[in-house]
Write a structure and sequence with these properties.
By secondary structure, the protein is mainly β. The chain has a domain of 115 residues: N-terminal domain of TfIIb (Single Sheet), CATH 2.20.25. 0% of the residues lie in helices and 46% in strands. The strands form 9 sheets. Strands 4-5-6-7 form a 4-stranded antiparallel β-sheet, with no helix packed on it. The radius of gyration is 21 Å and the shape is flat.
Length: 351
């Protein structure tokens, strides 16, 4: 990925959901841990199961969020969006053209091609006046460290498209706009001003790390991935290289390890730059809950490894997703199911 930024995280799922009438679920559950709810598709409709594969929210939606956030999930029926709780009850009505999940108490929603932010009562806290988020920037319009990245102007137009930070009152921060910006993590946000390269600013809008990089990812576990001189390495909060830029591609640290690529092979390094798992995979992804999804072999199937590099779930899936609270979504052709950490299906793949 040789762009100035990379799409990071599935975590904050980009859902432009568009929604129309609601039918309540038939199974009511008083106490559900929303972290353990997973979307499933049955007969072209979406609902949610729990970690035991039990259907908790009946499939009655045209689209749903990948996960609940702060107790709510965005859903779509027809061409309007709203938010449900863990029982499937619609708690914020189907009145938006698009919606993203809640984070730090606010959720971005779309009305008439403009985006604003609502609270958990459905009331607008920041009126809809910003332009549509871009597909390549999934963390936009999601608050992190009390700030959100928003866009104004025509997409793809270097003259008109501008990015800025706003706080939770809608105040525009730092008295400046950017050609590109990223959400704040660990007290720093990556920005690119017109005619400049990428650097990192603090919450005062001051450069802490000079804009000298061609590509970056946000800070994670104390380090940030940066592209310098056509190669990727890792810097600390002072902008000093901790791991020199020697990799063809690299990704953020997660659970103490990071994916790196050299000569079209992927492996894992620790924070000293030492290889912990050698370069032997076609593709590799970050560790979640002690396991990482990798692509192995000529057939291009995905399986899971542990932190020693041992294959613990054999490569058999066309697509695999990160583990979340004990389950991982996996795809066989166009059908999605869920497996546990032994590789056993908790939910057989459905289309």
């Amino acid at each position: 990925m040789k762009t100035m930024f990379k799409q990071y995280g599935k975590i904050l799922l980009y859902i432009f959901i568009i929604v129309c009438c609601y039918n309540s679920m038939t199974i009511a559950i008083d106490m559900i841990d929303t972290k353990n709810l997973y979307p499933v598709k049955i007969n072209q409709k979406y609902g949610y199961i729990d970690s035991n594969g039990r259907l908790i929210i009946n499939p009655e939606f045209d689209m749903v969020s990948e996960s609940f956030s702060e107790g709510l999930a965005a859903v779509r029926i027809g061409n309007k969006c709203g938010f449900i709780d863990s029982t499937g009850k619609l708690v914020i009505g189907l009145k938006f053209d698009g919606a993203l999940n809640f984070n730090e108490g606010l959720a971005a929603v779309e009305v008439n091609d403009k985006w604003g932010f609502i609270d958990k009562t459905g009331k607008f806290v920041i009126p809809p006046k910003y332009d549509r988020p871009t597909d390549y920037f999934p963390s936009a319009y999601i608050f992190s460290e009390a700030l959100a990245c928003v866009r104004i102007g025509e997409r793809g137009s270097s003259d008109n498209e501008k990015w800025l930070y706003i706080d939770k009152t809608g105040k525009e921060m730092f008295n400046k706009t950017f050609e590109f910006n990223m959400q704040f993590t660990e007290g720093l946000g990556a920005v690119k001003e017109k005619g400049s390269k990428l650097g990192f600013i603090n919450h005062k809008g001051e450069y802490v790390i000079k804009p000298i990089y061609d590509g970056v990812l946000p800070f994670s576990e104390g380090l940030a991935v940066v592209e310098f001189g056509g190669k990727w390495g890792y810097i600390n909060h002072k902008g000093s290289f901790v791991i020199e830029p020697i990799f063809d591609d690299a990704y953020s640290f997660s659970e103490g390890l990071a994916v790196v690529y050299l000569k079209n092979k992927a492996g894992y390094i620790d924070k000293t730059g030492k290889y912990r798992i050698p370069l032997k995979f076609i593709t590799a992804h970050e560790f979640k809950e002690g396991l990482a999804r990798v692509t192995i072999g000529k057939e291009g199937k995905m399986g899971f490894i542990d932190k020693t590099g041992k294959v613990v779930i054999q490569p058999q899936f066309d697509i695999a997703e990160d583990f979340r609270n004990g389950l991982a979504g996996v795809w066989i052709k166009d059908k999605r199911g869920y497996i546990d950490k032994t590789g056993k299906f908790v939910w057989e793949p459905t289309k």
